[in-house]
User: Which sequence fits this backbone?
């Protein structure tokens, strides 16, 4: 049985994965138009500028959408049905992720619930996941 | 030739059989579809001077297998809508005088995987780094992700989503070639196995083997054709995102909308002119997004529009009249089959013929809302 997919950084994405290894969610933003963006690439998708910089995001997000997958990808067979989520980062961009500390049920996964980033080792990298934050965390742990 | 040259689909055919075909490779399905379409046009392979298809196996392989050395080649491969883009590119090539008679082929051993290429995102690619680690595993885990957002924002119910499959099964029941023909109810759909919540098995497309091809040429080509010409009145294409997570708005497809606007403007039509509609339906939510993107209903209304019976047999906007990817066939790159049904309806030779349609619109999707192609097909020239 194959293992779970492990991302392999490229030179352009290495700072993102270096950030994850340091428990920081790093995004890029354009220094000409100011717009933050994800996924990592050395050009602003809004204005085409090469003048972009890395910054550390707040790690706060909300749940934008998800599915609960019943046909596991390689390496996921032991997880049971699992959620594949897309979160809305506080800074604007969205990213795919997994949810930590929440049962994979429609009742537990409520769109727009507040989340915060957490990190989990996967192969040679650290993978950004999201867990309930603040009052939502208390709710989930009750 | 000029920008005014009328361009037609003169030949259109599918493989002899569709479904489960372990005795035919991907390449063989291309060849069989190609020969059937050339024969349908009353032509021979010697008449073909342009060829378009996706990799794999690609236009060079298909051309070589057929003994053709084309002087126009298009290998555009952007998912299941690629064949609609090939038609669009063929129209331009014929008007430019680059080719006279273009063969567009599809073949895919989607179910049996004979001679098929395995797919997994390279771990260095953006999807390999930023989606695959979270357990994505093909379209059921990615194409489906926007739906819950749409359901929350626009009130689409699970029952309305399920009804998309029910409506299309009604068309499939009229089609002897459809894979699934037995009538189903909303309860049947909601009771079918969960694949990726909120999608049940019957809200996901089939996985089949099959193929088909088209012959595109100029309307004034000497000699005439055995079948009524299908005029290509307008075309559009767009790309949006290589990763579903980066789709700008999970409640609408910009690619669908913009490709549609281009095609409708070129054809000089509005939604009220459309007699027949094909919308690529890999999953039950895609026709909902398509109806809204093309402007047939306002945003948030498509689920109720379908559930009210407007798109099923007897409804005012016949949609996916072959049964669609949900009930007819879906090899993986379904766009060719959507075009084939549009052609059959305009010719008046469909299994579930809707009467005498003058305008058929075909909306193709590529990847996971990644790309779109739109064709406006007509009985009469513009
Ligand atoms: Zn910028």
Assistant:
């Amino acid at each position: 049985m194959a293992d779970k997919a492990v991302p392999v950084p490229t030179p352009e994405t290495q700072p993102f994965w270096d950030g994850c290894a340091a428990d920081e969610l790093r995004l890029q933003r354009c220094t000409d138009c100011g717009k933050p963006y994800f996924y990592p690439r050395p050009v602003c998708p809004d204005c085409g500028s090469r003048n972009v910089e890395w910054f550390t995001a707040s790690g706060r997000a909300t749940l934008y959408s998800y599915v609960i997958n019943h046909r596991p990808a390689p390496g996921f067979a032991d997880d049971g049905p699992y959620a594949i989520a897309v979160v809305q980062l506080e800074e604007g961009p969205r990213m795919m992720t997994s949810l930590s500390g929440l049962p994979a049920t429609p009742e537990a996964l409520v769109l727009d619930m507040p989340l915060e980033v957490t990190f989990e080792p996967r192969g040679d990298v650290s993978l950004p996941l999201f867990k309930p934050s603040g009052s939502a965390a208390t709710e989930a742990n009750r | 030739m000029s920008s005014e040259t009328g361009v037609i689909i003169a030949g259109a055919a599918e493989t002899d059989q569709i479904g489960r075909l372990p005795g035919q490779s991907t390449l063989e399905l291309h060849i069989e579809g190609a020969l059937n379409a050339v024969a349908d046009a009353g032509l021979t392979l010697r008449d073909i001077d342009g060829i378009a298809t996706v990799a794999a196996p690609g236009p060079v392989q298909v051309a070589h297998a057929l003994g053709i050395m084309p002087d126009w080649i298009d290998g555009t491969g952007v998912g299941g809508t690629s064949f609609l883009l090939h038609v669009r590119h063929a129209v331009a090539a014929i008007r430019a005088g680059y080719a006279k008679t273009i063969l567009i082929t599809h073949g895919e051993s989607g179910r049996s995987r004979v001679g098929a290429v395995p797919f997994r995102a390279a771990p260095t690619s953006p999807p390999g780094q930023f989606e695959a680690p979270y357990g994505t595993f093909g379209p059921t885990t990615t194409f489906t992700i926007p739906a819950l957002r749409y359901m929350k924002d626009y009130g689409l119910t699970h029952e309305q989503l399920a009804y998309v499959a029910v409506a299309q099964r009604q068309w499939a029941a009229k089609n002897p070639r459809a894979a699934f023909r037995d009538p189903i109810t909303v309860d049947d759909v909601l009771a079918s196995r969960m694949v990726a919540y909120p999608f049940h098995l019957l809200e996901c497309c089939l996985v089949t083997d099959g193929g088909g091809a088209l012959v595109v040429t100029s309307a004034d080509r000497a000699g005439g054709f055995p079948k009524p010409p299908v005029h290509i009145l307008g075309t559009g294409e767009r790309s949006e995102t290589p990763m579903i997570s980066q789709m700008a708005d999970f409640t609408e497809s910009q690619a669908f909308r913009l490709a549609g606007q281009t095609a409708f403007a070129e054809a000089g039509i509005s939604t009220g002119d459309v007699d027949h509609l094909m919308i690529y339906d890999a999953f039950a939510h895609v026709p909902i997004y398509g109806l809204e993107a093309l402007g047939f209903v306002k945003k948030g209304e498509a689920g109720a529009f379908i559930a009210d019976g407007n798109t099923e047999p007897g409804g005012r906007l016949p949609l996916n009249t072959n049964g669609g990817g949900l009930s007819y066939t879906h090899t993986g790159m379904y766009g060719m089959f959507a075009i084939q049904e549009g052609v059959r309806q305009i010719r008046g030779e469909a299994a579930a013929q809707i009467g005498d349609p003058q305008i058929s619109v075909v909306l193709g999707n590529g990847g996971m809302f990644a790309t779109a192609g739109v064709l406006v097909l007509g009985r009469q020239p513009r």
Q: What stands out?
A: The pocket of zinc ion is lined by residues A 30, 32-33, 35, 44, 46-47, 49 (CB under 6 Å). Chain B touches chain A at residues 121, 123-124, 126, 128-137, 140-142, 144-149, 152, 193-199, 243-246, 250 (CB under 8 Å). Chain B has a mean pLDDT of 96.
